[in-house]
């Protein structure tokens, strides 16, 4: 009887493994088809392919549909799938980056800001998130907040054109003329005769 139980258990385990392997193969082929359609910009076909095997609890399927719907211009649909991916993997920055794309297209800057902040909670030293969040505050003319984020990005990449130039202008508007002058001049080392940097220096003089 004991031997029979072991045999039945082994058979069930093998059957489960076989079904799982087969399901994985099918899913792999579905994803490959979606990539092929994406390569030819047939986004609708790519979406339909993935949707045919939609599993609400699959992070991979939801983030894939988020991206494909973004490419097809279905921004609200894209957001819905990215939000589901975020729910499934809250510690991941990947879907938070992804959802920024459709929010940007919809010009929903509040949500863009929220998601950059969410990225920074997980990855505080992320240069791109700090820089882009700095830009949001800069264009709102909240130069104190902008400087906070630009400073992080500049410290990580001290000889980067965008970091130098935006930090220079931010310091200029904050009245930090000496710091602005230094940063404008460093910008010129990367981009000689740069119009924006030269304009900044002319205003300081």
Number of strands: 0
Average pLDDT: 92
- General form: elongated
Content of β-strand: under 5%
Low-confidence residue ranges = 14-19
**Helix proportion range:** over 70%
State the CATH architecture of the domain at 124-205: Alpha Horseshoe
SSE run: HHHHHHHHHHH
Major sheet: none
Provide the CATH superfamily of the domain at 124-205: Tetratricopeptide repeat domain
Distance between the termini: 95 Å
What would you call the structural class? mainly alpha
The CATH class of the domain at 124-205 turns out to be Mainly Alpha
**Radius of gyration over C-alpha positions, nearest whole angstrom:** 25 Å
Summed up, the helix count is 11
What name is given to the CATH topology of the domain at 124-205?
Serine Threonine Protein Phosphatase 5, Tetratricopeptide repeat
Question: What would the keywords be for this entry?
Answer:
Serine Threonine Protein Phosphatase 5, Tetratricopeptide repeat, mainly alpha
Quick summary:
With 205 residues, the chain is mainly α.
What does this structure look like?
The chain has 205 residues and is mainly α. It has a domain at 124-205: Serine Threonine Protein Phosphatase 5, Tetratricopeptide repeat, CATH 1.25.40.10. Helices cover 80% and strands 0% of the residues. It has eleven helices and no strands. Helix 5 (94-105) packs antiparallel against helix 6 (109-122) and helix 7 runs antiparallel to helix 8. The radius of gyration is 25 Å and the shape is elongated.
């Amino acid at each position: 009887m004991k031997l029979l139980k072991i045999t039945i258990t082994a058979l069930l385990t093998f059957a489960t493994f076989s079904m799982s392997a087969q399901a994985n193969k099918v899913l792999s082929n579905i994803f490959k088809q979606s990539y092929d359609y994406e390569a030819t910009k047939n986004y609708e076909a790519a979406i339909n392919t993935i949707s045919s095997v939609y599993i609400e609890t699959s992070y991979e399927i939801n983030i894939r549909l988020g991206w494909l719907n973004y490419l097809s211009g279905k921004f609200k649909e894209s957001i819905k799938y990215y939000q589901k991916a975020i729910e499934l993997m809250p510690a991941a920055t990947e879907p938070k980056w992804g959802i920024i794309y459709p929010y940007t297209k919809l010009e929903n800057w509040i949500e863009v800001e929220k998601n950059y902040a969410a990225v920074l909670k997980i990855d505080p030293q992320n240069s791109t998130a700090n820089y882009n969040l700095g830009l949001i505050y800069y264009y709102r003319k909240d130069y104190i907040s902008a400087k906070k984020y630009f400073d992080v990005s500049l410290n990580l990449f001290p000889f980067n054109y965008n970091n130098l130039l935006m930090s220079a202008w931010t310091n200029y508007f904050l009245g930090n003329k000496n710091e602005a002058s230094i940063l404008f001049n460093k910008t010129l080392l990367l981009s000689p005769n740069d119009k924006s940097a030269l304009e900044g220096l002319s205003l300081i003089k």
